[in-house]
Amino acid sequence: MRAAILGASGLVGQELVDRLLAEDAYSEVHVLVRRPMRR
Q1: What is the chain's Cα-based Rg?
Q2: What are the angstrom distances between the C-alpha of 3 and each of 18, 30, 31?
Q3: 13: burial class by Cβ within 10 Å (0-12, 13-18, 19+)?
Q4: In this structure, is residue 37 part of a structural domain?
Q5: What is the total count of domains within the chain?
Q6: 22 belongs to a structural domain
Q7: CB atoms within 10 A of CB 17
Q8: Where is the NAD-dependent epimerase/dehydratase domain (predicted)?
Q9: What string of H, E and C letters represents the secondary structure of 7-33?
Q10: pTM
Q11: Separation CA 24–CA 1 (nearest Å)
Q12: Per-residue pLDDT at 9
């Protein structure tokens, strides 16, 4: 499965990215951000 997240650098978006990356069900996670992420 694939996921796309808009606003991934915010508090909720960052948590969602972390959870999706931890799931084996997602093979791709694409993010759209205005500022760099803290990874």
Answers
A1: 10
A2: 12, 6, 8
A3: middle
A4: no
A5: 1
A6: yes
A7: 19
A8: 4-37
A9: CCCCHHHHHHHHHHHHCCCCCEEEEEC
A10: 0.74
A11: 9
A12: 87
- State pLDDT tens for residues 1-16: 999 999 888 889 999 9
> How close are the terminal C-alpha atoms of the chain, in Å?
22
Q: How far is 20 from 7, CA to CA, in rounded Å?
A: 15
Tell whether 25 is covered by a domain: yes
Domain assignment of residue 15, yes or no? yes
Sign, Cα dihedral of 17, 20, 21, 22: positive
14: tokens are: 């960052």
**Structural domain for 11, as ranges:** 2-32
